[in-house]
Amino acid sequence: MLRDYAAQDGGLDGTWVPLAAGASLEDGQALVRDWLAGWRGQPSFQGPALVMAEAGRDRLIGQVGLGDRGDGVVELAYGVAPDHRGRGYASAAARLAARWLLASGLAREVELRIDPGHVASQRAAVAAGFAPAGTITSGGPATGESHTDLRFVMRPA
Q: Residue 26: helix, strand or coil by DSSP?
């Protein structure tokens, strides 16, 4: 499924999945192995991820990655395939994943870090029930670059 998107012109636009355009079948398989390693608690570059698919269809349309930020904070990063955007999938998936993490006690807070220019993702965050919580800067002297994102959070009700 990932290979089909990688082969399409613009199929991986918006980096909705962490693969480069033209990714091979082996690249897609390696990504899925990495996601699964994250679920097993083994070393994983991307960490665990949940995949989105339409009911009754065997086609990947998006993903939600989970990243441990420490101190009970889990960061979600979501992406939806270009041909499925604007249908509420990102907000529904982020809401379900965040509520599951909070209700199960796996997180005390779930956060999203969104580029200030990515307005559609900000709308999806609010629709999912996340609240704006300022900004967060990452990078810095160690990398020689820094980047400021908007921070959105969901906490237990």
A: helix
pLDDT in tens, the chain (157 residues): 566 666 666 655 556 667 776 777 788 888 888 888 988 988 888 889 898 888 888 778 888 999 999 999 999 999 888 888 899 999 999 999 999 999 999 999 999 999 999 999 999 999 999 999 999 998 767 777 888 999 999 999 8
Long-range contacts of 93-101 (CB under 8 A, 24+ apart): 93/50, 93/52, 93/62, 93/64, 94/64, 94/124, 94/125, 94/128, 94/130, 95/128, 95/129, 97/50, 97/64, 97/66, 98/128, 98/129, 98/130, 98/154, 99/154, 101/66, 101/74
pTM: 0.84
